[in-house]
């Protein structure tokens, strides 16, 4: 609980900051056409770590918003984790060399698990796995295809790989403000030793309060997107709650 991180999200589509509803590219809402400006705003609000996804890259299987990502990296001093279209070592190492702190491997974790293992070995602490699930089953290729692999099975397969974190997204809740799926996220976190970050559906301060309850101590944090953009979640209030929880844990 003491180390929980709230990650503001920037999802990139055609160079703009958007939010999708349930992973549907046809249901994209543009919130800012200047990703660097948005990133700078999040940093100035006090966030400690930024979550960025190249949505076009996730569908294409290769980076498609490189210029936007590079513009973000150029203005920030806080760390950035990046996912979307990272399917080979050249792409992965290229982003790390450009200043990304941690890369997120999603589709390739299913299709090429040896790539994840090799990347985690070469870049310890800098490789995360993105597990995006529909009804508990892993989705790939920008969420366009659902596999028959349970999310828990995929997570367990990397227990000994040196992966730094797992970002678990409930696609059914993503972008529609129905609240985090704490039950499924905790089930995954409690079955693994890898830190798990919750994603999909964070809607309000109530989600932050839930995240800080004792039974969620295994979670490393949560990602927030639409709730920040549309004003449902006040950054100052959310971060104050987290700081208070850290202080309480530190004095215990």
SSE blueprint and pairings:
Blueprint lengths: L4 E9 L2 E6 L2 E9 L2 H10 L5 E5 H6 L5 H10 L4 E4 L5 H10 L3 E4 L1 H5 L1 H10 L4 E8 L2 E4 L4 E6 H7 L7 E6 L11 H10 L4 E4 L5 H7 L7 E6 L1 H4 L5 H17 L1
Parallel strand pairs: 1-4, 1-12, 4-5, 5-6, 6-7, 7-10, 10-11, 11-12
Antiparallel strand pairs: 1-2, 2-3, 7-8, 8-9
Helix pairs in contact: 1-3
Verbal overview:
The chain has 252 residues and is an alpha/beta fold. It has eleven helices and twelve strands. The protein has helices spanning 35-44, 55-60, 66-75, 89-98, 107-111, 113-122, 151-157, 182-191, 205-211, 226-229, 235-251; strands at 5-13, 16-21, 24-32, 50-54, 80-83, 102-105, 127-134, 137-140, 145-150, 165-170, 196-199, 219-224. An eight-stranded parallel barrel has the order 1-4-5-6-7-10-11-12, surrounded by seven helices. Helix 9 links the parallel strand 11 and strand 12. Helix 1 runs parallel beside helix 3. The chain is globular, with a radius of gyration of 17 Å. The mean pLDDT is 94.
């Amino acid at each position: 609980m003491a180390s929980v991180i709230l990650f503001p999200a920037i999802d990139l589509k055609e160079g703009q900051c958007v939010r999708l509803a349930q992973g549907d590219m046809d249901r994209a809402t543009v919130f800012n056409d200047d990703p660097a400006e948005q990133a700078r705003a999040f940093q100035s609000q006090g966030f400690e770590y930024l979550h960025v996804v190249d949505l076009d890259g996730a569908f294409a299987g290769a980076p498609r918003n490189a210029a936007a990502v590079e513009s973000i990296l150029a203005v920030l001093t806080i760390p950035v984790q990046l996912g979307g279209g990272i399917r080979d070592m050249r792409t992965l190492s290229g982003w790390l060399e450009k200043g990304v702190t941690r890369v997120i491997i999603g589709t390739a974790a299913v299709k090429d698990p040896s790539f994840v293992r090799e990347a985690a070995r070469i870049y310890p602490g800098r490789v995360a796995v993105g597990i995006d699930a529909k009804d508990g089953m892993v989705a790939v290729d920008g969420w366009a295809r659902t596999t028959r692999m349970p999310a828990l099975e995929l997570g367990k397969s990397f227990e000994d790989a040196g992966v730094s974190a797992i970002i678990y997204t409930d696609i059914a809740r993503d972008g529609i403000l129905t609240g985090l799926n704490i039950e499924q996220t905790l089930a995954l976190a409690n079955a693994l030793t890898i830190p798990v970050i919750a994603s999909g559906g964070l809607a309000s301060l109530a989600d932050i309060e839930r995240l800080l309850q004792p039974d969620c101590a295994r979670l490393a944090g949560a990602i927030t997107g639409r709730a920040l953009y549309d004003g449902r979640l006040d950054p100052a209030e959310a971060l104050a709650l987290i700081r208070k929880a850290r202080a309480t844990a530190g004095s215990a």
